[in-house]
Design a protein that fits this description.
- By secondary structure, this protein is mostly helical.
- It has one domain.
- The chain contains six helices and two strands.
- The protein has a two-stranded antiparallel sheet.
- Strand 1 and strand 2 form a beta hairpin.
- Helix 1 runs antiparallel to helix 2, helix 1 packs across helix 3 and helix 4 crosses helix 5.
- The radius of gyration is 16 Å and the shape is globular.
- About 35% of the residues are buried.
- The site of potassium ion (K) has 3 residues, from helix 3.
- It is an enzyme of class 2 (transferase).
- Its main location: membrane.
- Catalyzes the formation of CDP-2,3-bis-(O-geranylgeranyl)-sn-glycerol (CDP-archaeol) from 2,3-bis-(O-geranylgeranyl)-sn-glycerol 1-phosphate (DGGGP) and CTP. This reaction is the third ether-bond-formation step in the biosynthesis of archaeal membrane lipids.
């Protein structure tokens, strides 16, 4: 029962989980803020690039399309009813995850944190909040139908756990500069 909820929550958030990791692998190139500062601090910093954002969004949408193609066998195998992703929902989840992460960098710079500095809480939830808001904005009927209160609760607990573990793994593998 709880495992079923975890499976559905994980599946539903997959298009939002992948973008940040894809951005880490694809990042580099021109920063979104073009080097601009506000006061003596950068607006976003060199860690938020056009390439990373585009690659992250595309990776999330691509994964959603793969999920749509295999939803029936995976649902049958797990014995749960998994949702499909209409294109607006997929784009909302993936792009929203990137926007949430970018918004967090803005807050980090405003609060005096350098690129790469940790902001516990914000680091683990920025992209979830962005993904949920954009998914709701881009496809509200899908959002309401898909995110019941139990699913939403599991997402909010599961996501920080997954975020911490995947980032430690990426750090150990040498693809990420900090373990958060
Ligand atoms: N990245 C990117 N574009 C994004 C998000 C991430 O290019 N929109 C890449 C960058 O190379 C970045 C890396 O992924 O350094 C890790 O992402 P993240 O931890 O979010 O960035 P930080 O470098 O830690 O910067 P910040 O302090 O602003 O979060
Ligand atoms: K981040
Ligand atoms: Mg970081």
């Amino acid at each position: 029962m709880v495992l079923d909820l975890v499976a559905v929550a994980f599946w539903t958030m997959l298009p939002a989980y992948v973008p940040n990791n894809a951005a880490v692998l694809a990042g580099g190139g021109a920063p979104i803020d073009g080097g601009r500062t506000w006061g003596d601090r950068r607006l976003l910093g060199d860690g938020k690039t056009w390439r990373g954002t585009a690659a992250g969004t595309l990776a999330g949408v691509a994964l959603a399309l793969v999920c749509n193609a295999v939803v029936d066998p995976v649902s049958a195998f797990l014995g749960v009813s998994l949702p499909t992703f209409p294109l607006p929902a997929a784009v909302g989840l993936a792009f929203g995850a990137m926007v949430g992460d970018i918004a967090a960098s803005f807050l980090k710079r405003r609060s005096g944190r350098q690129r790469g500095a940790a902001f516990p809480g914000l680091d683990q939830l920025d992209f979830v909040v962005g993904a949920l808001l954009f998914a709701a904005a881009f496809d509200l009927p899908w959002f309401v139908e898909t995110f019941s209160l139990p699913i939403l609760s599991v997402v909010l607990v599961l996501t920080p756990v997954l975020h911490v573990t995947t980032n430690i793994a990426a750090y150990v593998l040498g693809v990420k500069n900090e373990p958060w």
